[in-house]
Design brief:
Layout lengths: L1 E6 L9 E6 L2 E5 L5 E7 L10 E6 L5 E7 L8 H22 L1
Antiparallel strand pairs: 1-4, 1-6, 2-3, 2-5
Length: 100
């Protein structure tokens, strides 16, 4: 998962708070000082589905959140790899038989 965040604060405030949660677990806390748009990237694990939540508080300025992306990592299943292997061997065997 990744997102861009900026804090428009002109001063550091003790009350500033921005947190990202994945499945209810705190995975990120932003600094309370001012910063320009910055990309933050994390690797998170979901067992089929997951919940991403953000919470923020920065009076009188604000945090700006943009371009939130969650991507699914694809891993081939063993059965799929077996089928690819069989197809490759079959293709090799057919080509070899045509040459002889």
């Amino acid at each position: 998962m990744s997102f861009y965040l900026q804090n428009e604060a002109t001063t550091t405030r003790d009350m500033a708070d921005f947190i990202a949660y994945w499945n209810g677990v705190n995975v990120f806390e932003a600094p309370s000082s001012q910063f320009d748009f910055t990309q933050f990237t994390f690797t998170v694990v979901a067992g089929g589905s997951g919940t991403l939540a953000f919470a923020g508080y920065e009076p009188p300025a604000r945090y700006d959140l943009d371009d939130v992306v969650v991507t699914q990592a694809t891993t081939p299943e063993p059965a799929s790899l077996w089928l690819v292997g069989v197809a490759a061997l079959g293709s090799y065997w057919l080509k070899r038989c045509q040459v002889d």
